[in-house]
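can u pls check wat happens w/ flavin-adenine dinucleotide
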Amino acid sequence: MDEPFFTASTLIHPDVLIIGGGSAGIAAAAGAAETGARVVLLEKNTILGGKATAAYVGTVCGLYYRNDDPVVRYAVDGFPRIFAEKLEILSNSSPFFYNNGLRFLPYDHYAFIQLCDEVVQQSKVTLYLDAHLMQVEREDHCIRKVGAMIHNRAVTFHPGVVIDTSGECIVARLAGIDTVENQTYQATAQTFIMTDIATDDEQKLRLSLLRSIRKGIDSGLYSQHSEMLSVIPGSLKLNRAVFKLGLSSEIGNDPFEITRLQLSARYAVAEIVHYLQTHNPLFKNAALSMIAPEVGIRTGPRNVGKTILTKEDVINCRKVEDAVARGTWPIEFWIPGKKPHLEYFSFNDHYDVPGRALQSAASKNLLFAGRNISATEEALASARVIGTCLMTGYAAGHLAAGIINNDCYEIIIATVQRSLFPE
Ligand SMILES: Cc1cc2nc3c(=O)[nH]c(=O)nc-3n(C[C@H](O)[C@H](O)[C@H](O)COP(=O)(O)OP(=O)(O)OC[C@H]3O[C@@H](n4cnc5c(N)ncnc54)[C@H](O)[C@@H]3O)c2cc1C
């Protein structure tokens, strides 16, 4: 029997329904739409980009091989590379060469939003913003109905395939499908932007920041958590920089905790900005111009796929027949109150993400991409970076269209590989 939510709703029948318009969701929409599928994308915020824009993480990692070469070497072609190259132009940015052979792309947050809007428009995807997934009905190992509140109106979807790119396994959780909770809590962070800083030398800014914060802590003027403040590498331009404040408080399952975290993060930023303005000459005339609307939460629950990407796969750079993404970023763990812990694999090498890690073990028409793929928490601490999310998202879009068309798995994989890894 239909539940009241579903009977009161407007009905829509897309081929592919994507939940979440972050990096993975945008790529999934582009991937599915280029096969001719009718695609609907639901996003609960009023901007696209997910963590990349709402939490303003500031750099795209995972696109390039780690090495000491003077020129970056892409690990991927096709949609993720085109996206990155456009982002580079719109942000007036270029790949940043960091310690230990790491390379990443600093970006401008408005440029990221603009590019996501452009991808959705050009792909002719039907986008619903302010659209919150509310209800999922499963029957015979398939997702049959999905209910959403869109601008406070109930809408029901009868999708062919659902791709969960919410980062939170929201579809599986509402459908009563098992998910995996994290064992280790990873530190959250709040980003913010300051203008009118009296230098454009990032090294000088970094050292000066370290010195004044150490002084503040030693003299008791400032609290310990300010130690986790850093400048996002490559972000200082025209006396404006993006800062990231690591937060040491943990959040659990109490629904109120997210509110407490958001409020305390904003308070901590106001406190640190005031301290810098009054104690560091480089910040004397500086102003706080933006606090990212969302605290950056790195991990959520994980889906269970037909296979699970593991730490051994990552560290040993394991290759598989059904590769749909190439991971190049090290395993990066953020224990609250500590500097990040990185575990590297070889220069100029990558691990493969199997297509089976994007397919639900419990539901025939449920796929996932981005930071809620089927992986252990160590493997995900590498695979969650934006570059890899763009790859798994694009692949999930193609896999979804393949399921609709009853294509054989090997043929869909070959199509994805031709597009992403043409050499
Ligand atoms: C503090 C921090 C720093 C980071 N630094 C970097 C970095 O420097 N470089 C890098 O590459 N990566 C970085 N990452 C990781 C990276 O930003 C994310 O893992 C990646 O952006 C995830 O993309 P996604 O599309 O999988 O998920 P998200 O970006 O989380 O997108 C999920 C989308 O789903 C939407 N959604 C959720 N629930 C619902 C619902 N019920 N209904 C409708 N929509 C819903 C959300 O609003 C969101 O837009 C960082 C992450 C954090 C938290």
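Residues 19-25, 42-45, 50-52, 55, 57-62, 131-133, 165-168, 170, 189, 296-298, 370-371, 384-387, 389 surround flavin-adenine dinucleotide (CB under 6 Å).
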